Amino acid sequence: MIMNSPSKRRSSPRLKNKAEKKESLHASENGSASSKSSSSPGGSPGRSRRSTTRKLLTEQPQEKSSRTKSAPNTSSNRGKNRAEMKKRAEIVLWKKPITTIQFFVLECGHLLKELAFRLWRNIIWVLLTLTVVGVAVGAYYTEGPHQRHVALFERKFLWCAYWVGLGILSSVGLGTGLHTFVLYLGPHIASVTLAAFECMSVDFPAPPYPDEIICPEVEGTAMNIWTIMSKVRLEAFMWGAGTALGELPPYFMARAASLSGAEDEELGDLFDESNKAKGVMARARLAVRRLVQRVGFLGILACASIPNPLFDLAGITCGHFLIPFSTFFGATLIGKAIIKMHIQKLFVILSFSEHHAEKIVDWIGLIPKVGPALRVPFEEYFNNQKAKLHHRPGTAVQPRTNWLSWVFEKVVILMILYFVLSIINSMAQSYSKRHSEQSKKKTGKSGKKQN
Fold first, then answer.
1. d(C-alpha 45, C-alpha 426), whole Å
2. C-alpha–C-alpha distance, residues 281 and 271, integer Å
3. Where is 353: in which H helix or E strand?
4. How many Å apart are CA 163 and CA 185, to the nearest integer?
5. Distance CA 271, CA 275 (A)
6. Are 436 and 91 within 8 A, CB to CB?
7. What is the distance between the alpha carbons of residues 294 and 335, in angstroms, rounded to a whole number?
8. Which of 158-162, 275-279, 424-428 comes out lowest in average pLDDT?
9. Distance CA 69, CA 451 (A)
10. In 3-state terms, what secondary structure has residue 42?
11. Would you tell me how many other CB atoms lie within 10 Å of the CB of residue 317?
12. In angstroms, rounded to a whole number, what is the distance separating the alpha carbons of residues 184 and 170?
């Protein structure tokens, strides 16, 4: 019995591919020849074979050329998008004031039109809301025994709404928000802490609390940190809930872009893996994106539970990868309003407790050359705050000016002005972006019609 050699038994894949190509070529030649002979009696099979071979030979080079052409097109589009982003970044009040104000006014008009259109679409809910508001206003202005409960509800509602609004302002605007913890909530917790250790009680008379803190007539004998934390728990939780609400616009923006299939050049740069070696911030963004994408709820909770300036990227990542709203907002609310706020409260209370505040003032005095000069205003400030705590309503308090409080007030005013200017600039840039996108769509439609 004759054994076949392995070379004959196993045919190489190259020979198989060549044989298949020859068979398909012969089949196409026969089909074209028969069709030509049936259609035209004078047609020769040689010409049909030549034409089919030419077609098969020219198909692959055409595909390669189309692929090579598409790559430069994408790179050119990215270059154009980046150039447009640079132009939009120049639309600011200190470079182009007239254009910026004009675009800001047009953007306000566009937003008002969208709001009116959405209200008209949900006219039933609008009417129900107006009915409830009308009943509440009638109960508010009607005399009766319920006015005591109305006054209590009004005071609590306005107090909570105040801190929720400050929380929204702190996280809105993709990193350009007003840092209201440093400006409002932190000083409020510090003043409550100083008053608690001075009065040895947190039962401040209301009114004037929370507008003004005064020691109660019956003071205590001991004070601990947990009592102070329970005193400021409501405002801290509301501020944290406001910061969680302020993280929703980036989430919904990225989610809408992902569902529509539209490519945003700004979001494309955030999710571009090639940017990981361009700096520390780019690597940090990439790390946050990977943590949120891989871990999910616990990753969002970890990012929201610490002071994280890159948490806007977590919201954009969740929206881009279509993470459910309940998962994103639940983890954000728990992290920001409960875990993070307790950490920040504990830090402020420990820093401004009686013994620690005195130590901080002593450490300031140890700074070479400028230490003694800086220690005096801090001591005056703490002494003035303690004196205010012990005066009774109706008694006049001599106003004492302190350059430290004066500087803090001016810093607050400057930060608020910068926040307002950043809102105007961002709205003007968003109008410019939408206008350029609309012009691109119009030119694309006109080009299709001409073709």
1. 70
2. 13
3. none
4. 8
5. 8
6. no
7. 18
8. 275-279
9. 20
10. coil
11. 27
12. 11
pLDDT of residue 267: 59
Rounded CA-CA distance 265/187 in Å is 40
Q: Is the pTM of this model over 0.90?
A: no
How far is 62 from 80, CA to CA, in rounded Å?
27
| Tokens read off for 281 | 């911030």
DSSP label at 213? -
Nearest alpha carbon to residue 263 among 81, 46, 50: 81
Encoded tokens for 396 = 């006049």
Per the CB < 8 A criterion, the answer to whether 93 and 426 are in contact is no
At residue 291, does pLDDT exceed 90? Answer: no
Chain position carrying tokens 């605007």: 173
- Angle (CA) 59 61 64, round 5°: 110
Structure token digits, residue 29: 């030649």
Tokens (6 digits) for 394: 């109706």
249 φψ region: left (φ > 0), alpha (ψ -120 to 50), beta (else): alpha
Residue recorded with tokens 């009638």: 138
Q: What share of the chain is helix, strand, coil (3-state, %, to 5)?
A: 80, 0, 20
In whole angstroms, give the CA distance from residue 342 to residue 327.
22
Q: How far apart are CA 50 and CA 340, in angstroms?
A: 76
Whether the link from the prior residue into 208 is cis, omega within 30° of 0, is: yes
Residue 241 confidence (pLDDT) above 80: yes
pLDDT at 436 over 60: yes
For residue 44 the two structure tokens come to 């020769």
Predicted pLDDT at 234: 92
Structure letter (DSSP) for residue 210: T
Q: How many residues does the chain have?
A: 451
- Within its chain, how far is the Cα of 262 from the centroid? 19
One-letter amino acid for residue 319 of the chain: G
Task: Give ∠ CA 130-136-140 in degrees, rounded to 5.
Answer: 140
Q: Which helix (H) or strand (E) holds 402?
A: none
C-beta contacts of 264-271 below 8 A and 24+ residues apart: 265/78, 265/81, 265/82, 265/84, 265/85, 266/85, 267/316, 267/320, 268/78, 270/313, 270/316, 271/317, 271/320
Helices (H), ranges, 122-219: 123-141, 147-171, 180, 186-199
pLDDT of 254 reads 81
